[in-house]
Amino acid sequence: MEYEFLSAESVADYIRSKPELSSRVNADRITSVQEVGDGNLNLVFIVADNLGSSVVLKQALPYVRLVGPDWPMTPFRAQKEAEALRIHGSFNQSLVPEVFLYDSDRFVIGMENLSNYRVWRGAMIEGLRHECVASQMGEYVGELAFGTSVLGMDAEKQKRLMADSINPELCKITEDLVFTEPHNDIGRNSVLKENEKDAQEHANDVDMIRAMGEAKWKFMTSAEALIHGDLHTGSVMVAANNGIEGPSVSKAFDSEFAFYGPVGFDLGALWANYTLNAARSVALGNDDYADWALSLINETWVGFEKTIRSRYDNRLDKRVWREGMLEDRLSQWKLDAWLFSAAKMSRRIVGLAKVADVEQLEPSIRIGAARGTLNLARTLVARMSDTTSIESYMAIAHETLHRYKTV
User: Fold this and answer.
1) I want to staple 107 with a disulfide (CB 3.0 to 4.6 A). Which of 78, 187, 214, 254 is the partner?
2) Higher local confidence (pLDDT), 38 or 66
3) Helices (H), 287-353
4) Distance separating alpha carbons of residues 1 and 393, to the nearest angstrom
């Protein structure tokens, strides 16, 4: 598919041609065009004028930017992201960036500039504590779980939205990279030489493979809600609340993986990334921060559960969906979060697109962080049959990461 890519030189003319953007940024008084990228997939520009206004332009490329044209990728993912942001924002606009424009001809999203925020992963790597963000992300997942499911959305409308939100190419990335390739390498996996044995044991663990088969089945068949689909500390922006002490503010972004999937996937992705940061902190000897990172698991769950419980009285069908139904769903979502977290943390160690939390460690201590994470994923899967309490999860993570720490 051929279409014109944005560039620093063409951005002003592009804004000038779009009233939704020119009403927000003066194209004749632009002082800054910063091409920042967003990681693995897209072009991203931050554009500001001398009047103090700004906008972000995000353009989907017809391939995976991390790899290049050799890995084609549909640019229609931008449409999925724009729609998901708008729908998610309808439940709580404070937790996602506002969308001003979606250009279906050039696959460009014009959205709120979050330059006064920073990526949560980077903040955590620096040892910063943005309080209440984990709770806000739990609330975000809870809003989607209720508002886009048949609990809170008319069944006919929900089915239409589900059909419109089908996202096969982005889902296949997850199906392959998260659930399959850690146990069936096609040449994209890599670890330190000292961790090759750990990776092989992980890949060959029959119980882990069975669990990942179940996780993949749930991911591909459990169309519960319009989930974010790639919710982790790298897709959350955080900032101090007007520079004052107290709760921070946050926004989930990069929702191009959004589709109708299992609610527990978003929860498990967050849990896994908190745990990966804890693995980093343990490796560095910062046990206090590691414990704080692990405490975010409970904070996210509490925020999620509180939101679901507060919305449940407003469910649309109360004939058979009574109080017991809510308890059953919460139990299942917690179990699913355990399962998906094991998948998400281990793939970030052995697979493509790793995380800076672990990768930036010196190899001598990265060995233990990687080994601990892989063994933790296997332990969590093994323990799921006898416990799924948050306290048990945190205790298992604490003990396992410390046991494998490189001395």
Assistant:
1) 78
2) 66
3) 287-312, 323-350
4) 46
